Amino acid sequence: PNTTLARNAYLDQLVIESFDVRAWVTVSQDCSTQKIIHDLLITSMKEMNTNIFGQSDEEKMYKSLKGRRYLIVMDDMWNTKAWDDVRGIFPDDDNGNVAFYVDSSSELHEMCFMDEDESWNLLRQKVFGNQDCPSELEDIGKKIAKGCGGLPLAIVVIGGLLRTLSKTQASWRQIAENVNSIVATQDGEFEEVLSLSYTHLPHHLRPCFLYMGGFPEDYEIHVSKLIRLWVAEGYLETNVCERTEEMAEEYFVDLVKRSLVLATSWKSNGKIKTCSMHDLMRDLCVRKSHEAKFLLYTVDRDPLKVVSQSINNKGRSLVIDNSDLNSLVKKYGSNIRTIICVRSIANSLGPLGNLRFLRVLDMVKTRSLPSLPPELFDELVLLRYLALDYAVSILTAISNLSNLQSLIILSCSYLPLNIWKMPQLRHLVSSSVDVVKNPLETSYVLENLQTLFGLSNFICT
To answer: Please, are residues 226 and 253 in contact by the beta-carbon 8 Å criterion?
Structure first.
């Protein structure tokens, strides 16, 4: 990815030797101009190992760079306003200074909007790759590119949409009209341009896309985990059990091709290992999730201060970020189908027993978590995904979870023999855990098992 490419260049020894001062800052969506300048100043002063005196951070920053060769990188730039606000502190001594930003959805860019030719070239590359654009689509394509206002992310996202549509004048004109209409009536509202990608998203991909809004900003998600979650939620339209994960991976690749999801690292076999979302794309995702009452995202310990909309009567997902799990479960009741704890606190798991429709329980990032009550294994009969990363004893009653597909236990001393009596189990992941020896030497058949990781003291035949 481009951030990785820029970081590798930034840390290259030849680059280090070529500049007197280097500074790298990450510009989040709500980052103030003062914070950007302050972070730049702190980084540059560490680089020079000296103090700079002045009345303000702006003056200090200017003095630290004056007369020196400098390299400034502003990562994850989502709006060029940030550059307009800080450009005055960079002295122009014409001695080989470099300042650029990294747009994680596109390429490395100098601090400016793209002109019409650059916009069209990027859009054409996104849609056709190395192939030529049909001549009958070129004029329409240029209008679409112009309507994106020179913003690389908008161009890339619209390009991802166009590559999925039929290459006809009618379909392209419709997109051109939509883009131009937004620019004309909304003063170029960037989010409305991005929302076209959701409007044209096939219905089978929408829940997969909305699900991404449950993860925090700049959160890196393992694709294998994401696929298991989608499977557990029942988002895949297939009756062939063996193809479920394969189809989920196809859905994921489709979202990447549409530039709705960003690949952040790759496996040795070339497949995507981790992913994330651009800040603005995540904002769109969260907004659409709220409109559909698809998920509830809470970032406050007091459930009365939750800023997201309530879950509808059918119940959806509860994503907990630095909140009290027990209070939220009591507040939002038995309709919850999914609980993903990004960061949370739980003093008791008793209330979970009331969640009869719970399918996903991911408590990997939960603090102060007690042992699992045995009765949970009798009550959560619809549970398909269970993930824990704290020291816990798994009881033999776990076999009562007859619908469980994924079991991730990252801190466990042993697993009971009954683990092999779970016919729907597809993924069993642990960390150096022993399986209780079978005194009767009975054989068990897990026809759906696909992943077996971190186990010892057992035999497969």
So the answer is: no
For 47-61, 278-292, 348-362, 398-412, which range has the lowest pLDDT when averaged over its residues?
Answer: 47-61
Number of domains in the chain: 5
For tokens 């992941």, what's the residue? 429
Q: In this structure, are residues 359 and 338 in contact, taking their beta carbons and an 8 Å threshold?
A: yes
Residue 375 counted as domain residue: no
With H, G, I as helix, E, B as strand and everything else as coil, classify residue 65. Answer: helix
CATH number of the domain bearing residue 403: 3.80.10.10
Q: Is residue 377 part of a domain?
A: no
How is 185-218 classified by DSSP, letter by letter? Answer: HTTS-HHHHHHHHHHTS-TTTHHHHHHGGGSPTT
Higher-confidence residue of 254 and 194: namely 254
Q: Say yes or no: 177 and 158 in one domain.
A: yes
251 phi, psi to nearest 5 deg? -60, -45
For residues 313 and 368, what is the distance between their CA atoms, to the nearest angstrom? 30
Report if residue 406 sits inside a domain: yes
pLDDT at 170 over 60: yes
**What pLDDT is stored for residue 186 in this prediction?**
45
Tell me, yes or no, whether 6 and 102 share the same domain: yes
Question: Global pTM?
Answer: 0.65
Decide if 156 contacts 124 (C-beta within 8 A).
Answer: no
- Structural domain range at position 148: 116-199
Beta strands (DSSP E) in 218-371 are 221-222, 262-266, 272-276, 295-298, 317-324, 338-345, 360-363, 366-367
**Which of 16-20, 44-48, 101-105 has the highest average model confidence (pLDDT)?**
16-20
Buried b (16+ CB within 10 A) or exposed e, 200-235: bbeeebebbbbbbbbbeeeeebebbbbbbbbbbbeb
- Which residue, of 239, 257, 280, is where some domain finishes? 280
> Which residue type, as a one-letter code, is found at position 381?
V
What digits encode the pLDDT tens for the residues 146-166? 888 777 667 878 888 898 888
Give CA separation, 118 vs 6, 115, 190, 422, in Å. Answer: 21, 5, 18, 56
Measured CA to CA, the distance from residue 336 to residue 317 in angstroms comes to 6
Last residue of some domain: 247, 280, 313? 280
Tokens linked to 237: 């339209």
Q: What is the separation, in whole angstroms, between the first and last Cα of the chain?
A: 41
pLDDT at 311: 40
Residue 378 maps to a domain: no
Query: Do the Cβ atoms of 160 and 126 come closer than 8 Å?
Result: yes
